[in-house]
Amino acid sequence: MSQHEHQNMVDLFVIGGGINGCGIARDAAGRGFSVELAEMHDLASATSSASTKLFHGGLRYLEYWEVRLVREALIERETLLRAMPHISWPMRFVLPYHPDMRFEGDTPTSKLLNVVMPWMKGRRPAWLIRLGLFMYDNLGGRKILKGTTSLNLHGTPEGAPLQDRFEQAYEYSDCWIEDSRLVVLNARDAEARGAKINVRTKVVSAEQKDGIWHITLEAQDGGAQRVVRARMLVNAGGPWVEDIIRNTVRINSTEGVRLVRGSHIVVPKLYDHGKCYFFQGEDGRIIFTIPYETDFTLIGTTDAEHKDVGTKPVCTPEEQSYLANFASNYFKKPVSTDDIIWTYSGVRPLYDDGATSATAATRDYVLKVNETAGAPMLNVFGGKITTYRRLAETALEKIAPFFPDTEGPWTAGVPLPGGDFPVNGVADLTAKLAAQFPFLTPAWATRLIKAYGTDAFEMLKGATSQTDLGQNFGSNLTAQEVLWLIKNEYARKADDVVWRRSKLGLRMTAQEIEMLDVWMAENIARTTSEPQPALRKGRG
Question: What is the C-alpha to C-alpha distance for residues 223 and 366, in angstroms, rounded to an integer?
Answer without folding.
Answer: 35
